[in-house]
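Annex B. Sample input.
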Amino acid sequence: MAKRYTRKQLRKPDEFVSFWHKAYEAAAPYGRAIGLGLLGCLAVLAAAWAFDHWSTGKREAATDKFAQATRIAEAELITDENPAKPDVDKVPRFKSDKDRLEATLAELDKIEKENPSSDVATRAFLYRGGALYELGRFADAQAAYQKYLDKAGGDDALAFLAREGIGMCAEAQGKLDDALAAYKQLEPKSGDFFRDRSLWDEGRVLMKKGDLKGAEAAYKDLLAKSPQTPLRDEVATRLGQMGVAVPPAPPPVLPLGG
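Annex B, continued. Sample output.
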């Protein structure tokens, strides 16, 4: 029998998974095949819209600035074991995540100031939101995600990341009703990669609100609609905490001729 948790225990806030990890999970179908890192996955996706300008001879200064911002964000921190090497390091390095993220934002500021109408500037708002979130500047991060949506449009291929980011910012500020409303907007009407993520987000917030029946329904809906979801183990753990039995995973669907 799974351990039963009290409502008080279940309502303790989860430790947030890194935004970049979440972004990677959501973007994995686009990037996993070429081995992108957590930060690099989102960076390459956002830069993809700028690549067309570069490859057709229309390279913009904004593209270079965005590339520099992502290099700074991904640069290793300076430590005693890994000191700065001025003659070797091609991008600035910093001693703390805070300094590194603020330098990333400074580079993104240049894009908004000097190339505000470029496609790269629009995509950069998505990256900016992640950096601001990591800094704990949740209201600013939410504004960046919203600006991305306003500029890119709700049908943009990466709009899901911005909408989820808005929900995460509300959740981080304890605005659980706002977070739940944001996550509910994510759930598509027809099956696709993001349905399980939206229901996972909803279930997590419902647990924090103490609505265990609502959370159970969301998690069961997730398993019913996405039986092969990579989130299955996490869902099973949550349901187990509530003393709810989880049906065994169905066998994987083999390709024809397999």
